[in-house]
Amino acid sequence: MDLMIDIETLATGPDAMVMTIAAQVFDPLSTGWPDRHFYARVTPESQPNRKTDDTTIEWWAQQGPEAQREVFEEVGRRDLHDCLDELGKLIWQSDRIWANGICFDMNILEHAFKEHGIPSLGSFGVYVMLELFMLFGQIVLNLNQPATMR
Fold first, then answer.
1. What residues make up the domain containing 116?
2. At what angle do helices 54-61 and 65-72 cross, to 10 degrees?
3. The total number of structural domains that make up the chain
4. N or C end of the chain: which has fewer CB within 10 A?
5. DSSP per-residue letters across 51-83
6. pLDDT, tens digit, for every residue of 13-69?
């Protein structure tokens, strides 16, 4: 099984403060979603050494109210270390990791895992850039969006 990961942050560097982490296990050769997933809002207080930047915060201010609420609402937040520990278990049970911004998401997560002394993702080795598959679909198959979004 493969794992799709998406994070939301308050900066763009590898030491960015992480506000949400989402992960879903899936089989790229079948339909449906197995009931193995992870989602958490992360407490800023559990990330004293992670950074925010004004440009990213200004970008969030221009997003819709639902997106802003999801990133900034205080309800249900969890400690970053606990989130990484739980996410790590899904990662190590997966064949491949997919991300829409593989250089963005995985660099930030790699930095956070190292910062918290959790075994590195660097030795995992198989990352898939969702952007390449979407581009392939647009160019070769003449699709404007992933099949699951139609």
1. 2-149
2. 130
3. 1
4. C
5. B--HHHHHHHHTS-HHHHHHHH--TTEE-HHHH
6. 999 999 999 999 988 777 777 788 999 999 999 999 999 999 999 999 999 999 999
Nearest of 94, 137, 104 to residue 11 by alpha carbon = 104
pTM for the complete prediction?
A: 0.81
- Give strand ranges (E) for the chain: 2-9, 18-26, 37-42, 77-78, 96-99, 127-129
Q: Are strands 18-26 and 127-129 parallel, antiparallel or unpaired?
A: unpaired
Counting other chains too, the contacts that 102-106 makes at CB distance below 8 Å and 24 or more residues apart are 102/127, 102/128, 102/129, 102/130, 102/131, 104/12, 105/5, 105/6, 105/7, 106/5
The CATH number that applies at residue 41 is: 3.30.420.10
Structure tokens given for 92:
């190590």
The span from the CA of 137 to the CA of 92, in Å, is 29
**Encoding tokens for residue 111?**
């930095």
Token pair of 57 as six digits: 């915060």
